């Protein structure tokens, strides 16, 4: 109640405050903060943030699923060691992990110095959308790999053996057995990547050089620089609603998939 419910109620109260500032003195109920957010400028920031979060989620899925699948099929010795490589960076502070990319992506960074050894001109991969995407994929990839890996690891291997006994090749086994059974992990990974990606502000600030303004940056500005807590709370409420809609859609898709699988379990797989 203290750490979850009360802060949300406080944000909700601030969101409907018609007076700007950091306090609730002279509180006046108003929808003006929400009306202001739906101006073209702020809607553009929202759509850009949604696009960046969606793109980073897709990249994490395209990279994370094959990695999780390959690791899950290794022996326990290699499997545990490789998963540990994904977990160890998460032990460090998020800000420090992002700062590390400044030394890697800069014009005089390690990547460009390495390419210079082969006569390649310095790449412009700093303070642009490329750097932001690299930072997002790096920071959020473990949240995609771990749930998919866990789901694949818990999969009943006898189902794979049964599919092969019934004449299915490796591709059909993956398509008909492994992929459908791993979808709960995929849904969890998508949720765990998309939600922090849409609200992050550290990565655009550091790797984007403040050139790209996402919804997380807008909220941070209202609370730390502008001092307009009411407008910042209104933006936060809109973001919370978007996240709840996304979670509801993800849960609904997962339930529908489970119904389809349970309904078709009595028929032939091939």
Write the layout of secondary structure elements.
Layout: H1 5-15, H2 32-37, H3 40-72, H4 76-87, H5 94-105, H6 110-116, H7 129-153, H8 157-165, H9 170-199, H10 202-207, H11 215-226, H12 229-263
Please describe what this structure looks like.
- The protein is mainly α and 270 residues long.
- 73% of the residues lie in helices and 0% in strands.
- The protein has twelve helices and no strands.
- α9 (170-199) packs antiparallel against α12 (229-263).
- The termini are far apart.
- Residues 264-270 have low confidence and may be disordered.
Low-pLDDT regions:
264-270
Mean pLDDT: 87
Helix count, DSSP H or I runs of 4 or more residues: 12
Amount of helix: over 70%
Largest sheet: none
Which radius of gyration do the C-alpha atoms yield?
Answer: 23 Å
What string, H for helix and E for strand, traces the elements in order?
A: HHHHHHHHHHHH
Describe the oligomeric state of these chains in a short phrase. Answer: single chain
Structural class: mainly alpha
Percent strand:
under 5%
Shape: globular
Number of strands: 0
Distance between the termini: 51 Å
Quick summary of this structure?
This protein has 270 residues and is mostly helical.
Q: Which characteristics define this entry?
A:
single chain; mainly alpha; 12 helices; disordered C terminus
């Amino acid at each position: 109640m203290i750490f979850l419910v009360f802060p949300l109620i406080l944000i909700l109260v601030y969101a409907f405050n018609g007076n700007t500032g950091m306090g609730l003195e002279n509180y006046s109920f108003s929808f003006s903060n929400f009306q202001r957010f739906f101006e073209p400028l702020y809607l553009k920031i929202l759509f850009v943030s949604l696009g960046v979060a969606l793109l980073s989620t897709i990249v994490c899925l395209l990279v994370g699923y094959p990695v999780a699948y390959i690791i899950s099929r290794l022996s326990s010795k290699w499997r545990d060691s490789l998963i540990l490589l994904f977990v160890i960076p998460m032990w460090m502070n998020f800000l420090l992990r992002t700062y590390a990319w400044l030394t890697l992506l800069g014009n005089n960074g390690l990547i460009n110095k390495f390419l210079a050894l082969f006569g390649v001109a310095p790449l412009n991969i700093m303070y642009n959308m490329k750097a932001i995407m690299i930072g997002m994929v790096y920071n959020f990839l473990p949240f995609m790999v771990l749930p998919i890996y866990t789901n694949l690891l818990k999969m009943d291997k006898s189902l794979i053996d049964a599919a092969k006994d019934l004449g299915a090749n490796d591709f059909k086994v993956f398509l008909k057995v492994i992929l459908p059974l791993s979808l709960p992990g995929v849904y969890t990974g998508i949720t765990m990547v998309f939600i922090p990606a849409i609200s992050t502000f550290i990565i655009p600030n550091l790797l984007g050089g403040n050139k790209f303004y996402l919804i997380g940056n807008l909220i941070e500005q209202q609370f730390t620089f502008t001092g307009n807590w009411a407008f910042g709370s209104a933006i936060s409420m809109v973001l919370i609603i978007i996240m709840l809609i996304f979670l509801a859609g993800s849960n609904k898709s997962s339930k529908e998939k489970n119904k389809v699988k349970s309904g078709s379990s009595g028929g032939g797989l091939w």
